[in-house]
Model the fold of this input.
Amino acid sequence: MNQSTSEKIIHRLLNNDPFSQWLGIEVLSVHKGKVKLAMEVREEMLNGFRIAHGAIPYALADTTLAFASNSRNKLSMTLTNNISYLRKIESGDRLVAESEEVSLQDNYGVYLINIDRQDQIRLAVFRGTVYRSKHHVDERLP
Amino acid sequence: MNQSTSEKIIHRLLNNDPFSQWLGIEVLSVHKGKVKLAMEVREEMLNGFRIAHGAIPYALADTTLAFASNSRNKLSMTLTNNISYLRKIESGDRLVAESEEVSLQDNYGVYLINIDRQDQIRLAVFRGTVYRSKHHVDERLP
Amino acid sequence: MNQSTSEKIIHRLLNNDPFSQWLGIEVLSVHKGKVKLAMEVREEMLNGFRIAHGAIPYALADTTLAFASNSRNKLSMTLTNNISYLRKIESGDRLVAESEEVSLQDNYGVYLINIDRQDQIRLAVFRGTVYRSKHHVDERLP
Amino acid sequence: MNQSTSEKIIHRLLNNDPFSQWLGIEVLSVHKGKVKLAMEVREEMLNGFRIAHGAIPYALADTTLAFASNSRNKLSMTLTNNISYLRKIESGDRLVAESEEVSLQDNYGVYLINIDRQDQIRLAVFRGTVYRSKHHVDERLP
Done:
């Protein structure tokens, strides 16, 4: 498996993922176990206080987790995630998410994901735990 | 403050919340500190594996947290959340979220939220921690 | 495997666990996937503010998680835990922890654990995720 | 308030904290909002599988959180923590914990804490959320 296998998997995952498309997620970089994604917050992503709904940065982080963990072509599913919100996020903000693989075992992995604003201000921090199955990702994609 | 104040706040929050509207969130019941919400999973909410994106049940839980914690008319903001995924969620599934207020202090609160399917199967469990400010919610809504 | 197998495992786990012994953990009940434990907070378990160190209720919950998940005789190891503190805990308080198995899959499990005071006041809530290996617990114990 | 105020607070906290003393915690460095602590794992800290009980690295992280957040002389109490375990920890391992203050608001703070082994291998990652009260720490210490 080489770099372009990871890239092919990520692009097939995104092409088949209508919710990540609705979010407007762009792929900035892909390495085995590490991806960098971005998106822009739109008016329809706000909550009743006119700031981004908490699920918006979470969604970007969760897609980042799925892409990073599946980029090794071993089908990976999220068991549990946590997120801390550090600052308000507004319409028009560009969010950049980057993953770090802090543990990779045969059967599970742990990833840290930071969400930053375009001006490098940290907006949220996230940690996800995935189960890594015996299946290849590319067998399971349409 | 009485029951109908909580209901008015929740309805103003939802009416001003375009993302919760996109999700199709319905209010099933409102009590001070306790709400029950529902939504149906649509095709556009799926991920690349053709199951609900992890952010969809999270979004329902996060809206439930916001509504439950703000229902006491004290402006509350989420500090940190965690979620565990128990089963796959599919297009067409109806999700029901219900909150329990396990701690209510002057300055913060802790809420457990369960996400169940229409047939009472538990799909996800969530815990959120909010900061409770000195402001009234109804001063801050448009 | 029957009830007494679970009980034997729990007693061998506790007999070989010097830290749980230091805590003074007592086994109140054992069922497959569900245990109830108790302990009393001593002066040497306090922190600089003269309340129980946060690691004390955490330790009781983590032992409860280990006992509950290993009680099915499938070697289980903790991946990640979270805890929320609801009230101060003082020297002399008797803590009771009880587990609920919210997900049991071939390869992992999710457990909720509540920590209550002797007078039924809830002190902390905890959620743990374990990896379930292919090994039997009783092969791995001294 | 200067550096030596932080140092005085940390030393008074540790001197009054019997459980951190039982753990054998040493203070490696103290800055406002940032501390580095260490300890060595002893036989009496093991669990039934003869590895460190999960509460041991948690306890070191929780003390690190308490010291880092209180080092600014604003009384801070933990609301919720999470930890992921990356590797087994054995008797004789020396653990080093270092904090990063990712959010500092008037009323709350968020801290990341890494636990590493003496040879720089990462053993666990932890995130804590504290409530920051209006009180000074030094008013509350014996």
